[in-house]
Amino acid sequence: MTTTQQRIDHILIPILEQVSDPEIPVLSIMDMGVVRSAVVIDGVAKVEITPTYSGCPAMDVIGDDIKKALSDAGYQSEIDLILYPAWTTDWITPRGREALENYGIAPPLEAEADKDVLLHGKRIVKCTNCGSQNTRLVSQFGSTACKAQFQCEDCQEPFDYFKCLK
Amino acid sequence: MKENLYNYILGIADNSLILGQRMGELCGHGPSLETDIACTNISLDLFGQVRSYFQYAAKVSGDGRTEDDIAMLRKERDYKNVLLVEQPNTNFAYTIARQFLFDAYHLAFLSELQKSTDLTLSAIANKCIKEVSYHERFSSDWVKRLGDGTEESCVKMQEAIDDLWTYTDELFHQTEADKAMVAEGVGVDVTKLKEDYYKRVHRLLEEATLKVPQLKWFQKGGKEGIHTEHLGYLLSDLQYMQRAYPNMEW
Predict the structure, then answer these.
(1) Number of continuous H segments (helices) and E segments (strands) in chain B
(2) What are the residues facing B110 on neighbouring strands?
(3) Going by DSSP bridges, is the β-strand pair A20-21/A44-49 parallel, antiparallel, or unpaired?
């Protein structure tokens, strides 16, 4: 039912890649998968973005940042927020997952694995500090809507895990 | 204006708005850091959902009303939330019981709303259900933990369930707007959700070593705007900024 199809003009990609999620600055909105379409029509860049979570406070900022980046590149723009198809963590690109891990946020695992991790304490989330899988869930909810809190039992590092959303 | 559709959207959204406000009250007051963050995260999700509903309602109204007007400038009787969600955070067991009793309903409701012939509502439902299934995991987990926990936590959890039980039946009452929207294929027939709801709740209470209350009489009125005394106080908090500094934007 969900589609990963994006319609994005190549000329806009480098501009949009400069815009990042204000809460995860290492992740561009392109790698995050929140840009669903971006096309230039009669000189106006029309961009559709979709929220990660309904209450994500970053969406307003992201919309403003896109407008600014496009305006700096000489485009007028219209930003639309769309809800369907709903965002899923599958839309985070491999480059984005790597950026998350390097930044200290464990990237999302598969939905079922996620459930096991969150409900039954199975140890498969890798510590972003030492790489050990001997980690435990501290809380299902973390510093932002999209994350859960974990702690490594080997090196004791507390870290965020990006929850899987499908 | 499409009166029935407008009222129908408000009926859904007000539940999330008022419950979101209740959960938000725990910001900085949760029993532990983790639960505090969890409750406020749930609150944030609910408010996010509310914005989608109210933006749509504002569009449907077609008279220049904004999402902020709808959320902040109605009087008590114009809020159509169920009585359950306005009940106070008496203690953490009440917070959890209220959340679970609502989540179990909310999940079933959204699952049906996804099939709505109204594409905006089905898109919102499709988005919200992912978040709400996460809320339900959290609340059902805590019902089990407290119910099957210490002697004291079990007593408190049972007390909360017993007290809030009287508000559960109203979830399955239909308003005029409900009936009209069901007939058009837009709305969810909540009467059909009732049986599975109580099955699910009974199963969880059993797992949590709690007793299912044997109540035959239930409170109602919220859906018609007749509320318990708690809502007025909640609204005076919720609306303070907008009343004190008119035209602020959410």
Answers:
(1) 11, 0
(2) none
(3) unpaired
The residue with greater pLDDT, B153 or A142, is B153
CB spacing of A84 vs B127 below 8 angstroms: yes
Q: What number is the ipTM of this complex?
A: 0.80
Report the mean per-residue pLDDT for chain B.
Answer: 96
Please answer yes or no on whether B45 and A55 come within 8 Å at the CB atom. yes
For chain B, domain boundaries: 3-244
Instruction: Classify domain B3-244 by CATH number.
Output: 1.20.1260.10
Beta pairing partners, A152: A135
Peptide bond into A85 cis (omega under 30): yes
B37, B46, B123 ranked by CB distance to A141: nearest: B37
Give yes or no for residue B29 having a pLDDT over 50.
Answer: yes
Domains of chain A: 7-91 (3.30.300.130), 104-162 (no CATH)
Interface residues on A facing B, Cβ-Cβ cutoff 8 A:
51, 53-57, 83-86, 118-119, 138-143, 145, 149, 163, 165-166
Give the integer Cα–Cα distance in Å for B104 and B153. 22
